[in-house]
Structures are given as structure tokens and as C-alpha cells.
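Incident log, structure service

09:12 report received: a user says their structure output differs between two submissions of the same chain.
09:20 pulled the input from the user's history:
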Amino acid sequence: MRSPRRYTMWRGRWLRSRGVADAVKTWSRRLAGRLAPGRCLYCGAVLDAPGAGESLCHRCAPFFAPRPGGFCPGCGQLLEDEAAPLHLCRSCRDAPQPWEQLAFFGVYQGPLREVILEYKLQGRLGHTALLAACLSRCYRLHFAGGGWDTLVPVPLHRTRLRRRGFNQSCEPLKGWGAQEGLELVVRGLERVRPTPSQTGLHKTEREHNMRDAFAVFGEISWHERNVLLVDDVFTTGATLSACARRLCEAGVARLGVLTMARAE
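09:34 re-ran on a clean worker, output below:
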């Protein structure tokens, strides 16, 4: 039987050796990250200046530039001039949305649409980093410094979540949100009943489809929270409006909407 003194010495040596091994692994990963060439998150091409913070090559970057303006911050209605200042359209002035501000990374077309569809329908999880970068840039452009403190993704029903394996509105939020001081509340909302696909439905049909589809998770206190509701694509706003109503009923202090894309 090992004596207490010998056991203590043995355990101390084991812990020290384990600490050295962990340190070696950590520094090895850091060194590999510095020496390995950075690659474009879209096409995979080697970047010209690895380690400088770039995530896209010069050929792909123009397709993933955030839209600076030229849209209504209520419904996302697009204007011809992308650089035009944000201002509410007449419809949103007459009938305000349940959120105070909406912003999206880009228009749902071209490579951005391709990436979102591949990610959502084909499970191309390699696109997570690119979509996370898009959401992060959109947040910094339109929301940073505005006092927001919570991210809430639009949920999937549990049957669809099991089938797909991930929530496309949630996975890209992991990581950058915490760096911006935002708490990610994964189960802030629940989809309490399965809903048919929204594809091909008109606005009124979508609204009917979403009626009573969501509920607020009961164990969270929403008072004094400044919430950004996050989805992949804003089309008619039926899904986001249904979620927003539940959050407003729960007593959130402020509510905004952040999406990857706005359908034309």
C-alpha cells in the first residue's frame, strides 16, 4: 500500500508533468496558428497576409461586404442607394414594428444566399465561421455602443432540430457575442409547435402559420434586458414578429433584430 507521503509526492509530480504537457500543447497550437497560412472563409484560397485579421481573399471580399445603409430600420425595405442614411418608411411610421431597430448583413442573393442555403439545408457547418463574421460585422456597424446586452436566436422546433442537428440562427452567435459583451440565451424562446415550411407562402399565410408557435422560456427574467433577436433571413417578418411579441409580453426593456440577410 502506497504511503500518504509517497502518494502526495507521486501526485505532485504527475500534476506538474501534466501541466507541462498541457502548456506544450497550448503553445504548439498557438505556434501552428501563427505559422500556418490563413485561408479565405469562402473559397479556401491562401490569404496574402495571414495573421493580419483577414478572413476573406480580395476576390471574395466584395461579395461579403456589409450593407451600410439604404434600407428602412423597421421592415428592412430596400432603397436603391446602399449608402443612403437609414430612415423609417411610411408604413413603419404609420404602424411601428414591435422592435426599435432592424439591421441585416446583406441582401439575400449571390454568394451570401448560396452560403446560407448550403449551411441551412445541406449542413455545411464549415460555413459557420463565415456567417459568424457576417453577423459580427453587422452588429459592429449598426448596433455596437447601443447598450444591447443579450442575443436570442429564433428557435427551431425540437423535431426539426433533431433532424437538422443544429440551429442555423444560433451556431454563428457562439464566440463573437461574448467578445462584444453580449449574453447568448440559447433557450430564450421555444417553438412550442411544429410549423410547415414558410417557402412560397404570402405574408398573411406566414403570419397565420406562426400564430402561437412560440413561447418565452419561463425560467429567465427578461426585465431590464436589451435583447437582439437573431434569425438567418428576413423575408416578410412574420416569424420575427411572432417572436418579438412574446419577448415584449415578457417585459424586455428594448428589442432589436439582427439577421444575416434581407430577402428582396
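09:41 both user submissions now match this output. Likely a transient worker issue. Closing.
09:42 reviewer note: Residues 14-20, 22-35 have pLDDT under 50 and may be disordered. The first strand starts at residue 101 and ends at 107.
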